[in-house]
Amino acid sequence: MTTPAPDHILIVDDDAGIRELAAEYLQRQGLQVSVAADGRQMREVLATQRIDLLVLDLMLPGTDGIALCRELRSPGAPPLPIIMLTARSDEADRILGLELGADDYLTKPFAARELLARIHAVLRRTRMLPPNLAKAEPARHLTFGDWRLDTTARHLLDATGAVVALSGAEYRLLRVLLDHPQRILTRDQLLQLTQGRDADVFDRSIDLLVSRVRQRLGDGARGSRYIKTVRNEGYVFCADVQTAAAAAGAAQ
Hints:
The protein contains ten helices and 13 strands.
């Protein structure tokens, strides 16, 4: 029986001390680690090696982390989990990074153990659905309004059958909402179901995800057709949801 290869982490940070300390710690924990000081080196590693997760600093010389994240999330780019490193004063950039599709963020200075925990959590989330979703896996399509979510391919399809690209985080949020229609879910519940962690007082990642999913659905915050905000409580998916079999039966 062959031993599976360790997960390969790429750390992109212009601070050599951070790169070396983080790489040394992660390697001691059994991970394979590559490092890069800027976007050029990052692209060279991605072009020649299999990378399972990217740790990307926002403040880089030349092309910054925001531009690199946008590049990695462009249409046709292969999916790659991203944890962004930010300074505590970079709230606006951190929010933008999440909007562009980063899976998580970590503020500097950080403990190496916390970075390891975030890496494991993001890899778990990207490789499996939350436990509460497993019961619904036999349903290949979930239909609502003019949309269909293919739960096998993880594609969102519009009324014409065209695929609308979703990031991993966007897919998980939409899937949770579709599995719990007409039910108010708090931000803490959504964060726990989609990302496996609790929110801190300044955590806006769920609000950002909801905004991004609304954009994908052409849904505005005011007069929303699909995702309504319930003040001081959370969000509710307010449209009827059918499985593919139920939709086919209704059409006969």
